[in-house]
Design brief:
- With 444 residues, this protein is α/β, with parallel strands linked by helices.
- Helices cover 34% and strands 13% of the residues.
- The protein has three domains: 1-156 and 185-190, Rossmann fold (3-Layer(aba) Sandwich), CATH 3.40.50.1010; 194-281, 2-Layer Sandwich (Nucleotidyltransferase, domain 5), CATH 3.30.420; 284-359, Nucleotidyltransferase, domain 5 (2-Layer Sandwich).
- The strands form three sheets. Strands 3-2-1-4-5-6 form a six-stranded parallel β-sheet, with helices on both faces. Strands 9-11-10 form a three-stranded antiparallel β-sheet.
- It is elongated and about 160 Å long.
Length: 444
């Protein structure tokens, strides 16, 4: 028997709140989140991180459900990751110091928590991620043990107002005040998205049944779902219009997709027909070419930012036969969220404007880096090779060396004509007499 899960819940309130408001146009309901997690195990502790000075309306609901609120003071530079760092550090500390906590739930759509998820799984902790399919990173959806979509928590029976509100409606003779305000703000999404076709779930169901057959395991109801979650953690039976996994299997049986035996609660599921090769699923990447085509057509408008609803209308007008549900996306916003992870678009969320779509890095690739300047090469001036007589030069030529000039005798030039006759006799020159030294060595 599997051990009972003891859950520690960590809520990135700023992220989940703006995501719910911008995509679903409603307030974040912490009660629905906690109720969904209680179905998975016992909640031991629940901590929420936000700048609570700006979330006074939500503090009362947090207090009523025993949620510990941790204040995140923004830095002067508007540090966006302050809550993320505090949440990750507290979760790791709890994993180290509380051995009885064997499961963690991260309520956020931020892909920055991917490192935290990997670390918790390394310490043998079961990890749940709860967020909207339209704003939660697909990286988180695919790498946790189970992804719980916020859209699946929406209660369609909530349209019936409580008795006090009904009396107020009858007295005023109109609609509830909240519905009147919602109509003034425009059409908003309050119900679950349209369910997907059951045929789109069959490739995953057959993969899970084949895996159990290879292991020689009887495909019981609970074991089938756990195997399907191992293969695709983003699977949810509620995406196919089923309130529970039992209801989902019963719908598959009515559609003649599987054969079910046994009573309620002890169903045994088998495939109809002989085992065959696994059917190829329609990959979500196949939905991107049409979106790229529309973005390229309206490149100038999207480059400045366009509402997601306007972009959806362009897609319908230019490609009437295109249906994103065929690729596993219940809503157009889910397709945009996937396209953002593939760098096709960039999305910004706003509580009032909703989702604004911009062209992604794929349409604005970074400029190629400039080549580094070539180092200046100093040209070496070759000195002339000395020429040696009889030695060949670099070109292999033996030069003819001229002998150095010889010095001839120079004749003195006289100022006048040189006489060739005998020397003229003149008075003989007298020589100066030499001085004799005395005995003392002094001249006389």
């Amino acid at each position: 028997m599997e051990d009972k899960l003891k859950l520690a819940v960590f809520i990135d309130f700023d992220n989940i709140e703006i995501g719910v408001k911008s995509t679903l146009h409603r307030e974040f309901d912490v009660a629905a989140v906690l109720d969904a997690l209680k179905e998975r195990g016992e909640i031991v502790t629940c901590v929420a991180y936000a700048n609570w000075g700006r979330q006074e309306a939500a503090t009362r609901a947090m207090t009523e459900h025993a949620v510990q609120m941790v204040q995140r003071d923004p830095s002067p530079r508007g540090d966006k990751n302050g809550a993320d760092i505090n949440l990750a550090l507290d979760a790791l500390e709890m994993a180290f110091t509380h051995d009885h906590i064997n499961a963690f739930a991260i309520v956020s759509g931020d892909s920055d928590f991917m490192a935290l998820l990997n670390k918790l799984k390394q310490y043998d902790k079961r990890v749940f991620v709860l967020g909207g399919k339209a704003f939660t990173s697909t990286i988180l959806q695919k790498n946790c043990h189970e992804f719980i979509s916020y859209e699946s928590l929406l209660d369609e029976l909530k349209s019936a107002p409580p008795p006090q509100q009904q009396r107020a409606v009858h007295q005023s003779g109109g609609q509830p005040p909240q519905q009147q305000q919602q109509q003034q703000r425009g059409p908003q999404t309050h119900r679950r998205p349209a369910p997907l076709d059951l045929a789109q779930a069959m490739p995953l169901v057959e993969r899970a049944l084949q895996a159990l057959e290879r292991r020689s395991v009887r495909p019981q109801l609970g074991l089938l779902k756990s195997t399907m979650l191992q293969l695709d953690s983003a699977f949810s039976e509620k995406a196919y219009g089923s309130g529970s996994f039992t209801d989902f299997v019963e719908k598959l049986q009515k559609a003649n997709y599987v054969h079910v035996t046994g009573g309620e609660g002890r169903y045994m599921i088998k495939r109809i027909g002989a085992p065959g090769p696994e059917k190829a699923t329609v990959r979500p990447e196949a939905a991107l070419p049409v979106l790229r085509d529309v973005l390229e057509t309206h490149r100038m408008e999207v480059d400045e930012g366009v509402a997601s609803d306007a972009l959806a209308e362009w897609v319908k007008q230019e490609h009437p036969d295109y249906d994103w549900k065929q690729y596993g996306f219940q809503e157009f916003s889910e397709l945009l969220n996937y396209a953002q992870d593939k760098l096709v678009v960039r999305i910004t969320a706003d509580e009032e404007k909703g989702l604004t779509v911009y062209l992604g890095p794929e349409f604005h690739p970074p400029a190629p880096p400039e080549p580094p300047p070539e180092p200046a090469i100093e040209e070496e001036v070759e000195e002339p090779q000395p020429i040696v007589a009889g030695q060949p030069t670099a070109a292999g030529i033996i030069p003819d060396v001229e002998p150095p000039p010889t010095r001839g005798r120079t004749t003195r030039k006289s100022s006048g004509p040189r006489s060739t006759g005998p020397r003229s006799a003149g008075p003989p020159k007298k020589r100066a007499p030499r001085r004799k030294k005395t005995e003392e060595g002094l001249p006389q």
